[in-house]
Amino acid sequence: MHQGSILIVDDEPGIRELLGQILGDEGYETAEAASGEEALTLLERELYDLVLLDLWLPGIDGLEVLRRLREAGYQVPVIVISGHASGEQAVAAVREGARDFLEKPLSYDRVVLSVRNALDQARLERRVAEAAEGRVALTGSSPAIRELRRQVITAGASEGRVLISGPNGSGKEVVARMLHRHSGRAGGPFVAVNCAAIPSELIESELFGHLRGAFTGAVESKRGKFELADGGTLFLDEIGDMSLLTQAKVLRVLQEQRFTRLGGSREITVDVRVIAATNKDLEAEIEAGRFRQDLFFRLNVIPVRVPALAERLEDIPELVEEFVAEVAGSTGLRPKLFAPDALDRLREYGWPGNVRELRNVVERVMIMVPGETIHAADLAFLPADSGVAPPAGEVPRDLPLREARERFEREYIRQALERCGGNVTRAAARLGVERSHLHRKLRQLGLAPR
Ligand SMILES: Nc1ncnc2c1ncn2[C@@H]1O[C@H](COP(=O)(O)OP(=O)(O)OP(=O)(O)O)[C@@H](O)[C@H]1O
Ligand SMILES: [Mg+2]
After folding, report:
1. What residues does ligand 1 touch, defined as CB less than 6 Å away?
2. What is the topology classification, in CATH, of domain 386-450?
3. Cβ 230 vs Cβ 272: under 8 Å
4. Pairing assessment for the beta strands 258-260 and 267-269 based on DSSP bridges
5. Nearest ligand (C-alpha, residue 167)
6. Which of 11, 60, 152, 182 is spaced 20 to 30 Å from 105 by Cα?
7. Range 310-379: architecture per CATH
């Protein structure tokens, strides 16, 4: 992980040299500018993590440089250096957004401390912004979710790349955040990129950053996500939507942990763990020539599959309870109780939109239903389960018919039972068989009723 790059702005060569030496010894990269004009030019061209700015400069003075930076929308933290003990100027600088001020003669310790604080502070602010973004825990106690949780905790602790697959809204991003949280990088940044949402012409600039003027529209230099994720985790979401060209570039970074910004020549080295996610069948994409196999192998070191909600219907009551509390907390709506018949109705539905859809349904009824308790009738808007295409699991193609039938039957019955919350009488009615017959079947198939 790189320590940070610092621009030193002072008209006295001796001071620039001294600061360059102090900061270099501490492991920072430094650049120097002898005037306000030069500083502004460099700041337009390069990206720095911090600026040390002398207030007394010939031409544009430090305060004016600071003002122009803020006006242009630069977020870079600035520490000002004041020549004489001029408290007033330092106060003005702090008002303009300077993080700290140093007085000449400069003390080694004071410089190092101030720089470290300013960089830590900036890092912390980014971290706080990230933490506000998403959940890092999976609700549910079904065998499927327990297994997933176990995998996430084990995989999280390793440094291995993880490829998360699963249908829409099933919780892939939650899993990615959780992997980060359970890794040695938890103190570092978690940066997400949605590869599907970014036009293919812009994705490289998004990932690698660019310098001002690198292409039409690049009016300002910008850091890429690989750089922002240094020391932490980069979450490449919807990885199946990257163009082949971008795939080649991403592959190169993964191999070398190095890249250059668009329009730049300096190689930037980063320490980033990549976690990728997709709802596509990447192996089919590879077959079709749309996804690079070598990239797939790089990313798929540890595959983690997030199950569809339909595979873990028994988690619905817990999820509902959680979402009711969340929605109540964030909107001020009164929490509502889902009656058993309502929960049954939820378990009967196919949930093509998975957990996200469930959360939306909970929010919708909390807003729309006036009573304290939600009943099945309040969920009439849910499409009836069509009965076609039962998600009865995949049966391998070359099984003998008898065995295939048995597998299908077991899975079909298991799911019917699950949808009825384990109630054999209701499941029998659903399947159109006698209760005693279903009991017999369950024993035969080794599916003990709960
Ligand atoms: N096990 C879970 N417990 C609680 N909330 C969950 C769980 N799984 C998903 N969620 C919630 O469901 C919503 C969808 O989850 P998420 O965004 O992680 O899904 P996704 O698989 O990334 O979806 P997409 O494929 O659409 O990108 C989010 O609001 C998330 O907080
Ligand atoms: Mg997602």
Report:
1. 135, 138-140, 166, 168-174, 279, 319, 322, 355-356, 359
2. Arc Repressor Mutant, subunit A (1.10.10)
3. yes
4. antiparallel
5. 1
6. 60
7. Orthogonal Bundle (1.10)
